[in-house]
Amino acid sequence: MMEVAEEPGLREIGCEHSLLSRPDGSATFVQGDTSVLAGVYGPAEIKVSREMHDKATIEVMVRPKVGLPAIQDKNHEQLIRETCESVILGTLHPRTSITIVLQVINDGGSILSCFLNAACMAMMDAGLPMNAMFCGVTCALDDDGQLIIDPNTKDQKESRTVLTFAIESSEKKVLTISSRGAYSPAEVSISLYQSCL
Amino acid sequence: MAAGFKTVEPLEYYRKFLKQNCRPDGRELSEFRTTTINVGSITTADGSALVKLGNCTVMCGIKAEFTNPPIDAPNKGYIVPNVDLTPLCSSRFRPGPPGEEAQVASQFIADVIDNSQIIQKEDLCIAKGKLAWVLHCDLICLDYDGNLLDACVIALVAALRNVRLPSVQISEDTGLAQVQLSSKSPLNILKSPVSTSFAVFDDTYIIVDPTDEEETLATGLLSIVTDEDGKLCTMRKPGGSALSPERLQDCISRAVSRHKEVQTLLDEVLLSVKTQ
Amino acid sequence: MRETPLSNCERTFLLQAITDRKRIDGRQTYDYRNIKITFGTEYGCCIVELGKTRVLGQVSCELVAPKMNRPTEGILFFNLELSPMASPAFEPGRPSELLVKLNRLLERCLRNSKCIDTESLCVQAGEKVWQIRVDLHLLNHEGNIIDAASIAAVAALCHFKRPDVSVQGEEVTVYSPEERDPVPLSMHHMPICVSFAFFQQGTFLLVDPSEREERVMDGLLVIAMNKHREICTIQSSGGIMLLKDQVLRCSKVAGVKVAEITELIQKAIENDKKARKEGGKFGFAESLPEQKITSLKIDKSSVDTSDFKGEAKKIISKSEPPSDAVSKPVVWAPGTAQIGEGIGNAWGELEESEDEDDDADIASVSPESHKVIKKPAKHTSKDIVLSDSEEDDVIILEPESKTEASLPPSVSAEDKDKSPVSKTSTKKKKKRAAR
């Protein structure tokens, strides 16, 4: 499908809002072959044991397509939850729960950034109060330091470094970083600047 | 008075200190707690280390066992890290299967091992496709006082450098492995990654090596793992306060200088064991 | 989160409508909702929409050892998940009663009807067989899960292709899709479930009940049938008594519906095949509606990256370079060393926490006592170790005047530092020190 472009570029992006009837907000986000469906419930009632008196409890569930959630999914869950927590104005809805469910439809690389984008879209669809939007960007660096944005599975495997950032919309600052592989500080800034664009 | 103020308004209490560029425990913003390492703490393990960062204490024990190498990579062994957060170390953890934080920490350590290429997994293979070492790295937190990841990474590296594996020969007649306990050799450790954690307060103050209290009050956390070439192995920032690229670069610089400190510390410790 | 209960007037309204032979969504008694089947880019991946009920199906395969009693048969595994996305009532964790019931029904419908030739999945008798795993995820619950799930399972199985294998002696080679074309599964027939909801003790019946209708129904009859009108499974639940005629009439209706659905699945598969053959676009990205206000698509776009290197250099040059000053670690004993001037730990240290910078008066503590505190194992026999369980602090006392002298100021230091130490405990310590 997608050829490794000479100059870095994004794969085709698609997004659809409110496609599910049951959740309060839902969205699907497609980046090339990667596709994620997100559903948001909330602010809704919560079990007493989990409620927080000063803000909403945010819960993120990542559902893999085959089998049970693995340890990597837990890691993603935490990253996404913390990212969402930093933009949602949870203090407006104390003692409630906000549940974000992310279902992998197809993993064709850059899955974490797709998760983040889908989650953000679904939260907007649900009308949750947020102080900023965020977007996820995955970058890969191959052996000669060439940068690939939004890599597919093949690019991801061949590259030595994969970095995923979440960048918030209001001040273009970094919310979340997750990385794989070794790289120099300069390369980070390069990637960062890329993703800011 | 101060104690009461702290209980009622912990965040305000901290802000007052941070404005003066210091912390309630007397440290400066970019100052680490005392780091203490003890290697070879467990005699029954093949390699072990105890690391204390202030109060935060992590014990790492490494047990080597035989296993069959994976089918898709017959010339490799395994490293299996596992972080245990027992009710012993903090009241926030419940007994039972590992909670989210423990799983995330385990994944982080696994990522660090993979990314930094600390060991060539080929070195753990004894006979191609037949026999390989599996290193079970158990990291147990004894006292949870913030900055768990830094302590875990130091403990892991120290313990790995402490590992002594017996030499194994496969006899040609029987095909069975023969272990020679008399000759033990260390692992070939290629890199020594060091993690440096930061906490962000109110989007403005960045402090290093947060304690548990600081972690709960902070608005954002960041961990940077560097190796001796000044390369970054893993960066992890789970949400929280947004940072500009410039601030991030400052953090990376601090991580690089911290790496040098810990590196000399590790070298000294291991040297002291050898010369004994 | 609990499901919002149905109000009484809603219930009576629904039942009244059904007695008047009307349905709230405007369908006739025997009408199905619209069925839409879309396939993903991978083989064996599909989404089935039955009205607003949505199920994602994914088939995967793996080489495993066969079961002891069936050495020449492949293994089929079905798993339906009720994702918390589908309804707020579904919680992750322990499988609910409904989930167990649905999974068993699905297994009976698909495995026990022998719709897949399991013997063709054998690679090496007694050694290696294919395990086919069908994962179904309910994404949106608007009633009639079982029908949607069975359609999704059958469609995904029809669409799926496993990698080709060859056996030479003992060696099994699995070919990648590039080397050899993957092979489809051999399907004998396509069993599909049709649900009938009964109301008012079986007087009224509806095909394909929606979620609202399911809530007020008295009983449910599920018939799994293939297009040859062979019944694969039949299950009646809810405790209603059905007459022979009713069951026969239902099976006739089921026959018609199954023929329609089977045709639809085959058509969808054909379409997908054609699209793949022509090298056209396929997959979920293509199934996004084009002309809809809620959806948006951007084609492949390039990002201008000409100026990033300069910008990155600017950032790096602005920041301070890492300091080269490295503090010398202190080796206390072979195997134990320490670094840093920050606060030490509150474990083994007495109130004379010498690592605290703010206590200038404590800085004079000699390194000898320092050592003792850091490493209790190095104590001389003179040392007394007392532990105060109430405070989780280990108190080490040296019967030397030097230590005693440095006690009072550091007690105050602790008062300031940690959560307040109550007066009584301070007294206790002093008492102990006196002893």
UniProtKB/TrEMBL annotation, chain A:
It is found in: Cytoplasm; Nucleus, Nucleolus. It comes from the Eukaryota. Its main location: cytoplasm. Keywords: Cytoplasm, DNA-binding, Exosome, Nucleus, Phosphoprotein, rRNA processing. GO terms for molecular function: DNA binding; RNA binding. GO terms for biological process: nuclear mRNA surveillance; poly(A)-dependent snoRNA 3'-end processing; rRNA catabolic process; rRNA processing; U4 snRNA 3'-end processing. SUPFAM superfamilies: Ribonuclease PH domain 2-like, Ribosomal protein S5 domain 2-like. Residues 10-129, 133-188 form the Exoribonuclease phosphorolytic domain. The keyword Transmembrane does not apply. One of its GO terms (cellular component) is cytoplasmic exosome (RNase complex). InterPro entries: ExoRNase_PH_dom1, ExoRNase_PH_dom2, ExoRNase_PH_dom2_sf, PNPase/RNase_PH_dom_sf, Ribosomal_Su5_D2-typ_SF, RNase_PH. Homodimer. Component of the RNA exosome core complex (Exo-9), composed of EXOSC1, EXOSC2, EXOSC3, EXOSC4, EXOSC5, EXOSC6, EXOSC7, EXOSC8 and EXOSC9; within the complex interacts with EXOSC3, EXOSC8, and EXOSC9. The catalytically inactive RNA exosome core complex (Exo-9) associates with the catalytic subunit EXOSC10/RRP6. Exo-9 may associate with DIS3 to form the nucleolar exosome complex, or DIS3L to form the cytoplasmic exosome complex. Belongs to the RNase PH family. This is Exosome complex component RRP46.
TrEMBL record, chain B:
Residues 31-166, 193-257 form the Exoribonuclease phosphorolytic domain. It holds the Pfam family RNase_PH_C. One of its GO terms (biological process) is nuclear polyadenylation-dependent rRNA catabolic process. Keywords: Acetylation, Cytoplasm, Exosome, Nucleus, RNA-binding, rRNA processing. GO terms for cellular component: cytoplasmic exosome (RNase complex); nuclear exosome (RNase complex); nucleolus. Its main location: cytoplasm. It is found in: Cytoplasm; Nucleus, Nucleolus. Belongs to the RNase PH family. This is Exosome complex component RRP43. It comes from Engystomops pustulosus (Tungara frog).
From TrEMBL, chain C:
The keyword Cytoplasm applies. It holds the Pfam family RNase_PH_C. GO terms for molecular function: mRNA 3'-UTR AU-rich region binding. CDD domains: RNase_PH_RRP45. It is found in: Cytoplasm; Nucleus, Nucleolus. Residues 32-163, 189-254 form the Exoribonuclease phosphorolytic domain. Its main location: cytoplasm. Keywords: Cytoplasm, Exosome, Nucleus, RNA-binding, rRNA processing. Residues 348-435 are annotated as: Disordered. One of its GO terms (biological process) is U1 snRNA 3'-end processing. One of its GO terms (cellular component) is nuclear exosome (RNase complex). Residues 425-435 have a biased composition (Basic residues). InterPro entries: ExoRNase_PH_dom1 (IPR001247), ExoRNase_PH_dom2 (IPR015847), ExoRNase_PH_dom2_sf (IPR036345), Exosome_comp_Rrp42_subfam (IPR050590), PNPase/RNase_PH_dom_sf (IPR027408), Ribosomal_Su5_D2-typ_SF (IPR020568), Rrp45 (IPR033100). It comes from the Eukaryota. Residues 349-361 have a biased composition (Acidic residues). Belongs to the RNase PH family. This is Exosome complex component RRP45. It comes from Engystomops pustulosus (Tungara frog).
